[in-house]
Amino acid sequence: MIQHLTHADYTTMPWANGKGSTVELLRAEENGGFKWRLSRASVVENGDFSIFPGVERNLTVITGPGFDLVGAGLHLPAKPLIPVAFAGDIPIRAENVTAPSDDFNVMTARGLPRSEVAVIAGQTQLRGGDLLAVYALAASTLNGTRMAPGDLILTAEPLIVAGQMIAVRLYG
Questions:
Q1: Three-state secondary structure of the chain
Q2: What is the CATH number of the domain that holds 34?
């Protein structure tokens, strides 16, 4: 089964720290607890990231020049189309923001295996079995189905994808 989500299915909400907003694409909960979340946000200035105890994060800059993620003993460059993983409960700031950047975020409960995040450009085949979330960065196709920029497909089926997108393999 393939589930196709579009902008009409997403929810905009304020950041936990109140200094911006997030477009929540999809969220999964289990037994009343957080499991994982896929979202988009814009980083427009230097500033603190929200703290998410017990959560592993993965951020991929999808537009703009990127920025640096800086915390105590931590310096991670967040460059365009290169996924960056970090713990959600470590205080971290966006630094060296020279222009707005949009990012795609994957948050996973720490007790689960970390999600796999890959940026795809061109055509490839993705194995099925686990839950796959494929987010279109540009007009793309998935098993022949057209995806507009910003569409999200969820499935456990094997896929043939073509275009520019982010593929996330979620476990648990």
A1: CEEEECHHHCEEEECCCCCCEEEEEEEEEECCEEEEEEEEEEECCCEECCCCCCEEEEEEEEECCCEEEEECCEEEEECECCCEEEECCCCEEEECCCCCEEEEEEEEECCCCCCEEEEEEEEEEECCCCEEEEEECCCEEECCEEECCCCEEEECCCEEEEEEEEEEEECC
A2: 2.60.120.10
The neighbouring-strand residues paired with 142 are 145, 161
**What's the CA gap between 115 and 163, in Å, rounded?**
22
pTM: 0.93
Q: How many domains does the chain have?
A: 2
Per-residue pLDDT of 61-117, as tens digits, reads 999 999 999 998 899 999 999 999 999 999 999 999 999 999 999 999 998 988 999
> Is the domain of 38 the same as that of 94?
yes
